[in-house]
C-alpha cells in the first residue's frame, strides 16, 4: 500500500503530537505535589518555580492534544476508502427479499414446551 505524502505528513504530526502529550503530562505535578511543598518537602524549587509551570505546561498539553486529535481525524479521512452510496446493501437485488411465513406447528395462542 502506497501512502501519499499528505498521509505521511499527517502520520508524522500525529506521532510527534502523541509524544509531546506524553512528555508534557509526565512533566506536570500531581494534585498532591503542592501539599508536600507547603510542608517543606523541597519539591517547590523546580525548573519553572512552584506555580510558574502550571499554566505553561497545561496550555501546551491542551495544544498538543488538539493537534493530536486533529491529525488523527485527518488520518482517518485520508486513509478511509471511498464511501459507497448503498453501503452493505449494494449487492442486494431489488425484489429478492422474502419474508418467511409463520411456523404452523403450534396453534395460535398456545405455548408448546
Alpha-carbon Rg, integer:
29 Å
The description of the largest β-sheet is: none
Mean pLDDT, all residues: 78
Structural class based on helices, strands and sheet pairing: mainly alpha
Report the portion of residues in β strands.
under 5%
Order of helices and strands: HHH
- Number of helical runs? 3
Measured between the Cα atoms of the first and last residue, the distance is: 57 Å
The total strand number stands at 0
Overall geometric form = elongated
Helix content: 40-55%
Poorly predicted parts: none
Family: Belongs to the SecG family.
Membrane topology: Multi-pass membrane protein
GO molecular function: protein-transporting ATPase activity
Subcellular location: Cell membrane
Question: Could you please describe the fold and organization of this structure?
Answer:
With 113 residues, the protein is mostly helical. The chain has a domain at 13-28 and 45-80. The chain has three helices and no strands. The mean pLDDT is 78.
Amino acid at each position: 500500500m502506497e501512502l501519499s505524502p499528505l498521509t505521511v505528513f499527517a502520520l508524522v504530526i500525529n506521532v510527534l503530537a502523541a509524544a509531546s502529550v506524553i512528555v508534557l503530562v509526565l512533566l506536570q505535578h500531581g494534585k498532591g505535589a503542592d501539599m508536600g511543598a507547603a510542608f517543606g518537602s523541597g519539591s517547590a524549587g523546580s525548573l519553572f518555580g512552584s506555580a510558574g509551570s502550571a499554566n505553561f505546561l497545561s496550555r501546551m498539553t491542551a495544544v498538543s492534544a488538539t493537534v493530536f486529535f486533529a491529525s488523527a481525524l485527518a488520518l482517518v479521512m485520508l486513509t478511509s476508502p471511498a464511501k459507497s452510496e448503498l453501503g452493505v446493501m449494494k449487492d442486494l437485488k431489488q425484489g429478492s427479499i422474502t419474508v418467511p411465513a409463520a411456523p404452523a406447528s403450534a396453534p395460535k395462542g398456545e405455548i408448546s414446551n
